[in-house]
């Protein structure tokens, strides 16, 4: 079988729900091994729920999630954690915890009653900190770091797990623009240089098109398109999936798709919004 026909991580006809509320239905997706996959789509379309399902944190109400051909929910927690690492949204460290101690938590899936901390664990932690550039911060409290530094520390924790696949749920949220690109460049290096399979949920379509090697576009709980960014990010697709009329041109720096929204019709600017008081009304109120 080819890599595409038997992905290591996949959802097959999966329905994802919270109680009786269906978030996504009939999802059929395979994560390409060795690629940087980015999942995009409007708010509340099911992106993060899909990622949680792939990480075994959300059980489908129908269908299955497969890891190496097995139902992921039939595998033990540590079995999964040795193969798939997850950075959730808004991860928080205990107060006062040092960077090195937090990163060391990534080794817990490899430990047990008999196998305790080893030289291999130490090397994995030190290497993860070097790769992410946080080694100089090793003895600092995590809560004393900037947002960009903290995100790199959390990625170091995931790297210390030494998993083949890394899932990142909106990793650029709350970061300024420079730190967003710094983090995405790190993910690109992990994919290209380390051979890690990266799956990330992103909101910024231009960032997704620039960094992804494989793009998945969702809307209303369904996958509407998947493939290379140049095939997925088109003017028609942006209008259909995001409801945004846009021109798509090659990025002058990278050649990847660049989305330039059209100016909305003038009549649509205040559609459904309360009118701003005019000058005479304001003057009358002052009198």
Radius of gyration: 22 Å
Q: Given the helix and strand composition, which structural class is it? A: alpha/beta
Number of helices: 10
**CATH superfamily membership, which one?**
P-loop containing nucleotide triphosphate hydrolases
Quote the average pLDDT: 88
Pick out the low-confidence regions.
269-287
Strand content: 15-25%
Write down the domain tally.
1
Strand neighbour order, sheet with most strands: 6-7-8-3-9-10
Order of helices and strands: EEEHEEHEHHHEHEHEEHHEEH
What distance lies between the first and last C-alpha atoms, to the nearest angstrom? Answer: 80 Å
* Biggest sheet layout: 6 strands, mixed
What's the total count of β strands?
12
Q: Can you give the helix content as a percent range?
A: 25-40%
Region (Disordered): 260-287
GO molecular function: ATP binding
Domain ABC transporter: 9-245
Protein name: ABC transporter ATP-binding protein
Task: Give your account of this protein's structure.
The chain is α/β, with parallel strands linked by helices and 287 residues long. Helix content is 31%, strand content 24%. The chain has 10 helices and 12 strands. The protein has helices at 47-54, 77-81, 99-104, 119-132, 147-160, 177-192, 205-211, 229-232, 235-242, 279-286, and strands at residues 9-18, 21-31, 36-40, 62-67, 70-71, 84-87, 165-169, 197-201, 214-219, 222-227, 246-250, 257-261. The strands form 3 sheets. The protein has a 6-stranded mixed beta sheet, sandwiched between helices. It has a 4-stranded antiparallel beta sheet with strand order 2-1-4-5, covered by helices on one side. Strands 11-12 form a two-stranded antiparallel sheet. A hairpin with a 2-residue loop joins strand 1 (9-18) and strand 2. The longest helix is centred in the middle third of the chain and has 16 residues, at 177-192. It is globular. The termini are far apart. Pfam families: ABC_tran.
């Amino acid at each position: 079988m080819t890599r595409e026909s038997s992905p290591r991580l996949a959802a097959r006809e999966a329905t994802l729900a919270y109680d009786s509320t269906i978030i996504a239905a009939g999802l059929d997706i395979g994560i390409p091994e060795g690629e940087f996959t980015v999942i995009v789509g409007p708010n509340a379309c099911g992106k993060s729920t899909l990622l949680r399902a792939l990480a075994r944190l959300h059980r489908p109400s129908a269908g299955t999630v497969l890891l190496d051909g097995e139902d992921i929910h039939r595998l033990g927690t540590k079995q999964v954690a040795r193969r798939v690492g997850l950075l959730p949204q808004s991860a928080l460290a205990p107060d006062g915890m040092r960077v090195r101690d937090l990163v060391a938590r990534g080794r817990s899936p490899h430990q047990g009653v008999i196998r305790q901390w080893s030289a291999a664990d130490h090397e994995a932690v030190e290497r993860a900190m070097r790769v992410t550039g946080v080694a100089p911060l090793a003895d600092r409290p995590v809560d004393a770091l900037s947002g960009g530094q903290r995100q790199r520390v959390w990625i170091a924790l995931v790297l210390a797990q030494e998993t083949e696949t890394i899932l990142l749920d909106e990793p650029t949220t709350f970061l300024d623009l420079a730190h967003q690109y710094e983090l995405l460049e790190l993910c690109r290096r992990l994919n290209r240089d380390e051979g890690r399979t990266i799956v990330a949920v992103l909101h910024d379509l231009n960032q997704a098109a620039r960094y992804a090697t494989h793009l998945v576009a969702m809307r209303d709980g369904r996958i509407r398109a998947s493939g290379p960014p140049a095939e997925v990010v088109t003017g028609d697709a942006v209008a259909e999936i995001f409801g945004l009329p846009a021109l798509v041109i090659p990025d002058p720096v990278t050649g990847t798709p660049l989305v330039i929204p059209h100016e909305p019709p003038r009549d649509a600017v205040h559609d459904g919004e309360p009118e701003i008081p005019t000058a005479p009304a304001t003057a009358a109120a002052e009198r």
